[in-house]
């Protein structure tokens, strides 16, 4: 109910739908969030993820309480990282692959990491329009993971969002990157399986490919092998197989295979899933999966420490007061970068040595 004042008289008028909706949004408790996520309520799930991504201190406190409550319900999904150069067909592949997994009885969550959103500080929702069929499937959920203008924001929100999605019953979580910069290694550190998509017929197939990406890959898939691309895809597959053959596998229990697939027609996707399932089974039986996840939790901890320390330092009043002058001195060359860093760290309360 709301009170309205009309010519000096106070009258009671019933709330409209918009007011009721706002009231409901303002009154979600921790129990409401937990119940909503565990029951698969998509509206409350979306709000829970937004809570996790929020930089509001009150929201962060509630989000941590929420994650503690949800933690026992997570950790059971296949976590698959997917990267590839722009234009390799990631969105088309994910839509077709996700649909195949749903047909096999799985619930699929897609988390899209898009650093280009750093221009506005938010997320770009293009993946939902490029994966329209999958986005409209009730057994799938597509969520952009905002970079918040830096890599640290991606690592914080994506890991926590994965936990929320797993608690909501999604047993396959696909984490997509744009395939540029350092994101490949970050996503590999938060998933169980790292899939690298490659293009056929892109000139020298090994040119410009970071060795680190190949070393991290659990499987390389040459996409767009349909039609006239078949011969070029065969050549590319052989190139990558040769490259992997001379590298030491990251695990003694797994040698990364190289497959030809088509995200457009579905060629090879069933075999791809079989290989991913084999990897999950082998790593689970050997105990390596749990060891990897333990290591990832430690990396997550240090990533959050770095993120929080950087935020705290940037907002420290002494640092903020002196930063313009120190920045000007560094730009002019009056002060060296190492000395400027030492000065700022001392203002923050850290008296440490620094190798220049």
Topology:
Blueprint: E1 2-6, E2 9-13, H1 17-26, H2 30-38, H3 42-53, H4 57-70, E3 78-84, H5 90-103, E4 108-113, H6 126-130, H7 132-135, E5 140-145, H8 151-167, E6 172-176, H9 183-188, E7 193-198, H10 211-216, E8 219-222, H11 230-245, E9 258-260, H12 269-286, H13 288-314, H14 317-332, H15 337-348
Parallel strand pairs: 3-6, 3-7, 4-5, 4-6, 7-8, 8-9
Antiparallel strand pairs: 1-2
Helix pairs in contact: 2-3, 2-4, 3-4, 3-8, 8-13, 14-15
Protein name: Methylmalonyl Co-A mutase-associated GTPase MeaB
Organism: Telmatospirillum siberiense
Pfam families: MeaB (PF03308)
Structural class: alpha/beta
Which fold name is given in CATH as the topology of the largest domain?
A: Rossmann fold
Q: What would CATH call the homologous superfamily of the largest domain?
A: P-loop containing nucleotide triphosphate hydrolases
Second CATH tier, the architecture of the largest domain: 3-Layer(aba) Sandwich
The coarse silhouette is: globular
Helix content: 40-55%
In N-to-C order, the SSE pattern is EEHHHHEHEHHEHEHEHEHEHHHH
Strand order of the largest sheet: 5-4-6-3-7-8-9
Figure out the total of helices: 15
Mean pLDDT: 83
Strand tally: 9
**Biggest sheet: strands, sense, closure?**
7 strands, parallel
Radius of gyration over C-alpha positions, nearest whole angstrom:
24 Å
Share of residues in strands: 5-15%
Q: For the record, what CATH class of the largest domain applies?
A: Alpha Beta
How far is it from the N-terminal to the C-terminal residue, by CA? 65 Å
Number of domains: 2
- Give the uncertain stretches in residue-range form: 1-12, 116-126, 149-154
């Amino acid at each position: 109910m709301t009170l309205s004042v009309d010519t000096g008289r106070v009258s009671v008028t019933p709330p409209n739908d918009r007011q009721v909706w706002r009231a409901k949004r303002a009154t979600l408790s921790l129990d409401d969030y937990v119940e909503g996520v565990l029951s698969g309520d998509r509206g409350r799930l979306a709000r829970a993820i937004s809570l996790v991504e929020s930089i509001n201190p009150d929201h962060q406190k509630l989000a941590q309480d929420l994650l503690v409550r949800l933690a026992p319900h997570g950790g059971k999904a296949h976590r698959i990282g997917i990267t590839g150069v722009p234009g390799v067909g990631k969105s088309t592949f994910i839509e077709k692959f996700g649909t195949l997994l749903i047909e096999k009885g799985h619930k699929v969550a897609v988390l899209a990491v898009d650093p280009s959103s750093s221009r506005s500080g938010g997320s770009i929702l293009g993946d939902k329009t490029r994966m329209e069929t999958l986005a409209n499937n009730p057994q799938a959920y597509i969520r952009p993971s905002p970079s918040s203008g830096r890599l640290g924001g991606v690592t914080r929100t994506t890991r926590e969002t994965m936990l929320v999605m797993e608690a909501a019953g999604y047993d396959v979580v696909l984490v997509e990157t744009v395939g540029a910069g350092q994101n490949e290694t970050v996503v590999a550190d938060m998933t169980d399986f790292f899939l690298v998509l490659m293009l056929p017929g892109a000139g020298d197939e090994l040119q410009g490919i970071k060795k680190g990406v190949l070393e991290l890959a659990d499987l390389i898939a040459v996409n767009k092998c349909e039609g006239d691309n078949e011969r070029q895809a065969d050549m590319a597959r052989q190139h990558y197989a040769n490259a992997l053959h001379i590298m030491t596998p990251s695990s003694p229990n797994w040698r990364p295979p190289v497959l030809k697939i088509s995200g457009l027609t579905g060629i090879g996707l069933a075999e791809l899933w079989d290989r991913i399932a084999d990897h999950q089974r082998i790593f689970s039986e050997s105990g390596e999966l749990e060891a990897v996840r333990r290591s990832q939790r430690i990396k997550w901890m240090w990533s959050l420490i770095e993120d929080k320390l950087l935020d705290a330092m940037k907002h420290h009043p002494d640092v903020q007061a002196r930063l313009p002058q120190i920045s000007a001195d560094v730009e002019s060359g009056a002060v060296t970068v190492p000395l400027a860093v030492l000065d700022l760290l001392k203002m923050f309360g850290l008296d440490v040595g620094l190798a220049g």
